[in-house]
Amino acid sequence: MNDLARIAALLDQRPEGHCLPQGLYNDPVAFAFDQQAIYGTSWIMAGFACELPRSGSYLSQMVGSWPILIVRGRDGAIRAFHNSCRHRGSILCQPGSGHAPRIVCPYHNWTYDLEGALLAASRMGDDFDKASHGLKPLRIEEVAGALFVCFADEPPPFADFAAKLQTYLGPHRLDQAKLAFESTISESANWKLVMENGRECYHCITGHPELARTFPVGMSKHFDVAADERAKAFLETMAANDLATDAIEGDWWQLARFALNPEVRSLSMDGKPLVKKLMCEANGGDIGSMRLAIDPHCFVHATADHVFMFSAMPVSPTETHVTGKWLVHKDAVEGEDYSVDELAKLWTVTNLQDKELAENNQKGVNSPAYTPGPYSRDAEMLALRFTDWYCNTARSYLESQSADVV
Ligand code: FES
Ligand SMILES: [Fe+2]
Q1: For residue 23, how many other CB atoms are within 10 A of its CB?
Q2: DSSP 18
Q3: Using CA atoms, how far apart are residues 93 and 91, in angstroms rounded to an integer?
């Protein structure tokens, strides 16, 4: 049986409505498959345009095992490239952000312009063709200040998602935002366990006492609100402020705006705003939370005062990097309008709690006694949706490679 046939057999072992067979959570073959078939074919949210404030700003990051580089050019346009030198393949910029007038490879100094063209390569001879050794571009889209990249030649449909995201995220004015804080933690768990955990709040009442103060952790099914009086009033107020609320979804994305707990204005430790200068001033900043979720790797919560992004990247079969990014209004002054410690506190606490839960999950999944168990149809619908999406995407990839599945 080859590797693809092994993946197909594992997918076939999964009972409907259940989590995945062990091999899909810890086998190196599944890890390599996920890079190609999942992260290599999906739209990945790579960050925000405000992280690239001027010509020469760049953002270097790993999408799983594959390095990418996002650069704002001299013309102001944002482009994405494979972060791999056309000489012998070194990465050009270490993961992180920065600014440079040109992109210079640290190995033998091949030098590229901000649009990816090779400008200089010493001692390569007169017949060397620089024009055919530019950086390899990557598809990139910007919507409402958020950046999305895709490795696939034929990416999943994007236009409908882009229009909907503009409607939901646009009022948060990310063109007026700045990155206030970023952190990455390493979790000893497969990326799918990390994401399943991030897609359900079955564990939140006991697992996240801090989050439970502000976040409606008992919410069931999708993020469509219950028809109680407070929820109805929330929907009417949001409609009067031209803020979309409906829980909508496509194959690989979900959008909703939902009410936070009573008297709560932000996802903070005490429910109070974390930033004095608001990103969205509608209804005095009492606008619940706008949630965006993208498969395979990401969710975003946008309250009136800040935006939080969560992104999970596979590192090995049982290691995942979780990056958090916090945006605030660009004119908010650190120390006066907000404190980074307070801004980051709730999600930092929550992410560390989730790290422990995901790591416990991985250890138990490695047991010879593990068999996939059923999700709660009430409390884990989004985790089930994620796992179904994973299996469907994996099967589509296998079909595209069908000659090789033997
Ligand atoms: S690998 Fe980049 S210059 Fe040699
Ligand atoms: Fe959690």
Answers
A1: 16
A2: B
A3: 6
Determine if ligand 1 sits within 6 Å of the CB of residue 230: no
Minimal CA–CA distance to 214: which of 263, 169, 257?
263
pTM of the predicted model, to two decimals? 0.97
Write the DSSP string, 85-115: -TTT---SS-SEEEE-SSEE-TTT--EE-TT
The 10 Å CB-count burial string (b at 16+, else e) for 293-317 is: bbbbbbbbbbbbbbbbbbbbbbbeb
- Round to whole Å and give the CA distance between 33 and 314: 12
Atom of ligand 1 nearest to the CA of 90: 1
**Is 110 touching ligand 1 by the criterion CB < 6 Å?**
yes
- SS3 call for 143: strand
Q: What is the DSSP string of 323-387?
A: EEEEEEETTPPBTTTB-HHHHHHHHHHHHHHHHHHHHHHHHHHTSTT----BPPTTT-HHHHHHH
Identity of the amino acid at 391: C
- Distance from the CA of 13 to the center of ligand 1, in angstroms? 45
Q: DSSP secondary-structure letter at 197?
A: H
Q: Is 107 in the pocket of ligand 1 (CB under 6 A)?
A: yes
Q: Tens digit of pLDDT per residue, the chain (406 long)? A: 799 999 999 999 999 999 999 999 999 999 999 999 999 999 999 999 999 999 999 999 999 999 999 999 999 999 999 999 999 999 999 999 999 999 999 999 999 999 999 999 999 999 999 999 999 999 999 999 999 999 999 999 999 999 999 999 999 999 999 999 999 999 999 999 999 999 999 999 899 999 999 998 887 655 555 567 888 899 999 999 999 999 999 999 999 999 999 999 999 999 999 999 999 999 999 999 999 999 999 999 999 999 999 999 999 999 999 999 999 999 999 999 999 999 999 999 999 999 999 999 999 999 999 999 999 998 999 999 999 999 999 999 999 998 666 6
Q: What is the DSSP string of 286-312?
A: ---EEEEEETTTEEEEE-SS-EEEEEE
Task: Assess contact for 81 and 138: CB atoms under 8 A.
Answer: yes
Best residue among 81, 82, 83, 85 to mutate for probing ligand 1, ranked by most atoms within 8 Å of CB: 85
Query: Which residue puts its alpha carbon closest to atom 3 of ligand 1?
Result: 108
> Does the beta carbon of 105 sit less than 6 angstroms from any atom of ligand 1?
yes
